[in-house]
Write a structure and sequence with these properties.
Keywords: Hydrolase. This protein has about 300 residues and is α/β, with parallel strands linked by helices. It has a single domain, classed as 4-Layer Sandwich (Nitrilase/N-carbamoyl-D-aminoacid amidohydrolase). The protein is about 35% helix and about 25% strand. The strands form three sheets. Strands 1, 2, 3, 4, 5, 6, 7 and 15 form an eight-stranded mixed sheet that branches. Bound molecules: 2-oxoglutaric acid (AKG).
Length: about 300
């Protein structure tokens, strides 16, 4: 009798919690017209995952003083481009990274675009991104699709084949990694699910930083989306210098962030999502497309 009583209480407890969570997500989905994003512009220590995980935990804690809705990390932040050490250092099935990011997301109740980390899955290596929601639930797993030959990434890493589309607080969004931004057809493909924000994580060297900015502005304008793009700072042993220049760009291509170029830190910017509908209404590029003429 007592046991049955407990079961009934447990059942109703679960039921009430589910209703509560539903109401919260409806509330977020309906009313959220702005979104605060924090970009974690960090140095990545080559081949030193312990140092890098600690650094991410510190910078995420620092970011939380600004109460962001979403955090984003750079590319390959666990080991840098230490490709020749993948056998030893790649995160097996991404398990360590997933539990690390899920715990941070839950602890701070914040959405996390986990940049990317080197993983090994079924004896292949990948450049993998994980996205977690505020409850620490995995919303997307993405393996970088376009591998960067100039840094020999294609000799070590296997290219992904899946899209990275997800919803955060009910807002549709998409994510890509670094070299992916040179393929406008890929970003356009991701827009098919109605993304309002494109998240980009990168290790983009200083010598081509002008191209980084122009490419990101173009992706924002042509897709009429906000672009939130984080790049690392620091140096790699091969001599590449990374000067950050992380950017938040509105759907008209205007830069709306004010992130000190080469400084390490967590930088927060607010996106006003109300401008999207107006822009898309005025110049309706999605309905004016002529896909029958394209390849
Ligand atoms: O496209 C570029 O110039 C940089 C790309 C890159 O560094 C990368 O994908 O890791």
């Amino acid at each position: 009798m007592f046991r049955e009583g407990l079961k009934v209480v447990e059942f109703f407890g679960k039921f009430v919690k589910e209703i509560y969570n539903k109401l919260i997500s409806i509330q977020r989905g309906r009313y959220k017209m702005s979104l605060k994003v924090s970009l974690i512009q960090m140095d990545v220590k080559y081949g030193k995952p312990d140092v890098n995980y600690r650094k991410v935990a510190e910078l995420v804690a620092a970011a939380m003083t600004e109460h962001p809705d979403v955090l984003i990390l750079p590319e390959m932040w666990n080991i840098g481009y230490a490709l020749e050490q993948l056998e030893e250092l790649a995160d097996q099935n991404g398990e360590h990274t997933q539990s690390f990011l899920a715990a941070l997301a839950r602890k701070y109740q914040v959405n996390i675009i986990g940049g990317s980390v080197a993983t090994s899955k079924n004896n292949f290596y990948y450049n993998t991104s994980y996205v977690f929601d505020r409850e620490g639930k995995l919303q997307s797993e993405y393996d970088k699709v376009h591998l960067f030959g100039l840094m020999h990434e294609d000799q070590w890493v296997t290219a992904g084949t899946r899209r990275n589309c997800f919803k955060l607080d009910n807002i549709p969004a998409a994510g890509v990694i670094c070299y992916d931004i040179r393929f406008p057809e890929w970003e356009r493909t991701l827009m098919g699910e109605g993304a309002k924000i494109l998240f980009v994580s990168a290790q983009w060297p200083r010598e081509r930083i002008k191209q980084w900015q122009l490419l990101l502005q173009a992706r924002a304008i042509e897709n009429q989306v906000f672009v939130v793009a984080v790049n690392r700072v620091g140096k790699s042993p091969s001599g590449d210098v990374f000067n950050g220049h992380s950017l938040v760009i509105d759907p008209l291509g205007n830069i709306i962030s004010n992130i000190p170029v080469a400084k390490e830190g967590a930088f927060t910017t607010k996106l006003d999502l109300t401008m999207l509908e107006k822009i898309r209404g005025e110049i309706p590029v999605f309905t004016d497309r002529r896909p029958e003429l394209y390849d």
